[in-house]
Specification:
Layout lengths: L1 H13 L8 E8 L12 E8 L28 H11 L3 E6 L5 E8 L21 E5 L3 H14 L2 E5 L2 H13 L6 E5 L8 H11 L5 E5 L5 H4 L8 E4 L4 H13 L1
Parallel strand pairs: 5-6, 5-7, 7-8, 8-9
Antiparallel strand pairs: 1-2, 2-4, 3-4
Helix pairs in contact: 1-2, 4-5
Length: about 260
C-alpha cells in the first residue's frame, strides 16, 4: 500500500507543474452505496487524494489504468496500472473523478477490519536498511522517483539513468571518481534504448565484481528465472514494495 499512495501522490504532483494543493481525506464508508463489484455490504476505509491539476479528459478516464497508457509525454503508464493491481490484490477498489482543467480525485476503497486494531502478522516481511550508493536504470520516471524515495528511506544514496548507455557512462564515471555503486538495478526492457540484458555485460566489463539486479514488469521473461546465466546477481518483478526491494538488496550484498 505504500507504493499505491506514493504513486498517487507522485501522479498528483506531476499534474500540477505550476504548483498547487493536494488534499488527502480518510473516511469510513459503507460500500453498499457505491457500485463496486465484490464489495457490496462491506464496510470500507476510503482514502481520497485530490489535486488541482489539469485534470483528465472524459474520454481518457476509462483508459488511465490500462498498461502503457499515459497522458504524460514522458510517461509509460505503469504507475496507475501498478496502483490498480495492488489495490485489487488487497480486495479493494479504486475510483477516479475528474474534469479537464478541474483537477482529479482518486479514491481507494479498502475493506475495513472489524473489532479493533489489526495485529501485525508474524509472517510480515522485515525491512533491511543499509548504506551505500545505488544506480537505478529505468525508462519510467515514476519508477525512478518512487524507487528513489524508497531507497532514500532505507538509507541509500541514489543516481538514475534512463537507458543502458547512460547507466554504463554513469557507472564508469563513478568508479573513476572513487565513489562507485554498490548495487545497480537494470530494467530489462527499454523501448528505443539499450536494455538490461545488454547493459549488464557493459557494467561487468568495467568491473566484474558488480552486483546487478534485473528488474522487469514481465515475470515470464526467462531472464528473471535464470538471471545468473546472464550475469545478474538478483532479480525483482515490478511492481515491488519496500520489503521486496530491501530484501533483494540485502541478499545480493551478502553473496
Amino acid at each position: 500500500m505504500s507504493q499505491v499512495f506514493n504513486n498517487l501522490l507522485l501522479n498528483a504532483r506531476q499534474a500540477m507543474p505550476g504548483g498547487g494543493e493536494i488534499q488527502i481525506n480518510v473516511t469510513n464508508s459503507h460500500c453498499v452505496s457505491f457500485d463496486i463489484p465484490g464489495m457490496k455490504r462491506c464496510n470500507c476505509l476510503a482514502v481520497s487524494i485530490k489535486d488541482e491539476g489539469y485534470g483528465i479528459p472524459e474520454g481518457d478516464l476509462k483508459k488511465i489504468f490500462d498498461p502503457y497508457y499515459s497522458t504524460k509525454e514522458a510517461g509509460h503508464g505503469l504507475g496507475l496500472t501498478s496502483v490498480f493491481s495492488i489495490v485489487q490484490k488487497h480486495g479493494g477498489h479504486i475510483d477516479v473523478q475528474s474534469e479537464a482543467g478541474k483537477g482529479a480525485c482518486f479514491t481507494v476503497f479498502l475493506p475495513a477490519i472489524q473489532g479493533g486494531a489489526a495485529v501485525q502478522s508474524s509472517e510480515d516481511k522485515a525491512i533491511f536498511k543499509g548504506r551505500g550508493r545505488i544506480l537505478i536504470m529505468d525508462d519510467d520516471s515514476q519508477v525512478r522517483e518512487v524507487t528513489g524515495e524508497m531507497l532514500k528511506f532505507l538509507g541509500y544514496e541514489t543516481a538514475f539513468a534512463r537507458e543502458g548507455e547512460e547507466a554504463a557512462r554513469l557507472f564508469k564515471e563513478a568508479i573513476e571518481s572513487g565513489s562507485g555503486f554498490d548495487v545497480v538495478f537494470l530494467d530489462l526492457t527499454i523501448p528505443g534504448g539499450l536494455g538490461g540484458r545488454e547493459a549488464v555485460q557493459m557494467l561487468l566489463d568495467i568491473d566484474s565484481r558488480t552486483k546487478v539486479i534485473a528488474s522487469s514488469g514481465y515475470s515470464s521473461d526467462p531472464i528473471m528465472s535464470t538471471f545468473r546465466e546472464y550475469g545478474f546477481s538478483g532479480a525483482i518483478v515490478k511492481p515491488y514494495g519496500i520489503e521486496e526491494l530491501s530484501e533483494v538488496i540485502n541478499k545480493v550484498r551478502k553473496n
